[in-house]
C-alpha cells in the first residue's frame, strides 16, 4: 500500500469537478448556527433591566461560614439514578435517536436543473463515508466546472427534508492530507479529490519541508559559455525567420501556374461525364422497360375489367334467380321432410311394432313376432335339447328360433330401408333375406379364423340362430350375438342422425319404434302419395286367356284404394278384358288365348307387355 501524500499534487486553479471522487460528512447535527460570534446579543435590554443596572447595589453584612446554611439542592431534570433499567435504556435510545439519522446528498451544477449525482442513503449515524463515484460519463461542460452545490438531505422524525446547502468552490479548498487526529466542526463536509482530502472549514495543513541533498553548482566560466551559446541560438532563430519571410515574399510575387490543376480537373470531369452517360443509357433502358410493362399491365387491367364486368353481370343475373332457387330449395326440403314423414308412417304401419300384452316393460313385438331386448338366452338353444325329448323340445325350440330369426329379419329390412329414406348410410350393411338375413362388418379389426383372415365370408354375421350342436356351435352362437350387436349399432347410428340419444342399444325394438315415431312426427299435414306411380301390374298374359282373379288379396291390384285413379283405371281395363274374352267365346273360339303371341295380342285392346307382379306371398310371376 502506497504512503499517503504529504502535499497536494494539483494547483488550486486546476481543481475541477472531474477530480472529485467522493464526499464525507462529519459531526452531523440538526441545530443550526445562531448567526452571532458572541453572546452579547442575548442580553436583556429592556428599560427595566437597564434601570436596575444603573442603581448601585447595597452592601450587606457578611456572615461567617458557621452561620451559612447549606445551599438548597437544585431541582434536577433527570432522575436516571432512581429509574428502572428499562426507563434508562429508553432514555438512552431516545437521546441517540435524536442525534442519529438517515442521510444522502446530491450534487448540482449551474445550468442543470436535475442533480448530476445522488448518493446512496447512509443509515443511523452522525459521521458518514459515502461510496466513491466516477464522473467520467458526464458531459465535459460539467466535469470542467470548478464550482459545485452540495445539498444534504436528512430523515428526521420520519420525514425527509433539506438540512444543508453548501456552494463549494473547489479552487478554495484547504488540503488536509488525511482524516486522522482532526477535530471537525458540526456539519463539516470533507472532499475526496484525486490527490488527497480537502475541507472548507479547516485551514490548510502546512506541508513539511522538502528534504533534499545539496547539489554542486556550475562555475562562472560554464555559465558564461551557456550565455554565449544562448545568444548564438537566438541569432540563428532570427536569421531563420528573416529568410523565411524573404522566401514567402518572393513566392507571392511569382505568377501561379494553373495548368496542372486544370488538367487534373479536366480528367476528373471527363471521368464523371462518362459515368453520367452510362447512367443516362441505363435510365433510358429502364424507362423503355417500364413503358412496356405499363402497356402490358394496362392490357391486363382492361382484360380483368372485362372479366369483372362479365362476372358482375353473371352475378346480377344469378341474383335474380337466387331468391327463387332459395325458395325452391326450402320448398324441396319441406317436401322431402314431408315425404320422409309419410314414408316413416307407412313403414311404422307395415312393420307394426306393438307392446307385448302381459309382458315386462319395454317388451315389444314386430309384425306379431316378439323380440327380446337383452342378449339371446343360449339355454334355449340346441345345446340344451340333448336332455329333452326330441319330439316336443325340437318343435318348441324350432318355433322360438324361427320367430326370433324372422323378427330380426324384419328389423334388418326396416333398418336397411331407413338408411335410404333418411339418407344415412349404415356403418354395418344389412343383407335382408327374411329369417335368413345377415349383416357385414367391414370396419372392425377381426382376428383370423383358421388362417382365413382374408376370407370375405368371415365378415358376414348371421341374424338367425344356429342349428345343431357340436364343437362349432359356440362359435356360431357368438357370431349370432355379434350380428345382433351390429344391428343395434346401426339403429343407434340412425337415431344419432336424427339427434336422438340412445340410452341402451340392447333395446332393439324400443329404439326403432322411437326413431319411427320421431321421424313421422310433425304438425304439418302428411302429403299424399303421388298418383300415377306403381299401378297394378297385369298378370302377364291371363292364365289360359281367362280373366284374372277377382280376389283382391291375390295381387297388388286389390291393394289400391277405392275411388282412386289407379282403381278406376284397373276397373276399366278389367271390364275391357271381360268384354274381349266374352266376344271371343261367343265367336266359337276355345277358352283361352292363342298359343301364338301375335294372335293373343291382336284381340287385346292394349299393347302386349311383359310385366312382373309381386304378390303378398312374396312370389313372382313373370310372363314367359
From TrEMBL:
* Ranges where the record places region Disordered: 60-87, 545-607
UniProt feature, compositional bias: Low complexity: 546-559
Task: Extract the InterPro entries matched here.
Answer: UV_resistance/autophagy_Atg14
Tell me the domain of life: Eukaryota
Taken from the UniProt entry, a GO cellular component term is: endosome
One Pfam assignment: ATG14
Query: Per UniProt, which keywords does this protein have?
Result: Coiled coil
GO process terms (BP): SNARE complex assembly
Q: Which family does it belong to?
A: Belongs to the ATG14 family.
> Which protein is depicted?
Autophagy-related protein 14
UniProt organism field: Canariomyces notabilis
